[in-house]
Amino acid sequence: MKKAPFGATRAALGCGVLMIFLTGILGFVLSFFTNDPELAVAVRSRCLIGILIGIGMVITWKLVKQRLE
Asked: What is the distance, to the nearest Å, from the Cα of residue 66 to the centroid of all Cα atoms in its chain?
């Protein structure tokens, strides 16, 4: 079995990106169940930022991966 370079690092980064993305989605969905509208808006905006960061990290990772190969 051939080992990929930086295999463990790639797996850890992938899990980190996935957790940021899923936490943002979960927070966005759960913000609709709060009774405080100001809190809901604050949570949605922060979760949207988290989702955008997750998407940006995936795009960056794909570009770096393509460049290194």
From this structure: 20
31 contacts 42 by C-beta, under 8 angstroms: no
Model's pTM, two decimal places?
Answer: 0.71
Q: How far apart are the first and last CA of the chain?
A: 20
If one compares 60 and 65, the residue with the highest pLDDT of the two is 60
Q: What's the CA gap between 20 and 28, in Å, rounded?
A: 12
3-class DSSP state for residue 35? Answer: coil
Residues 1-12: tens digit of each pLDDT: 456 666 777 778
Distance (Å) of CA 7 to CA 13, 24, 35, 60: 10, 26, 45, 18
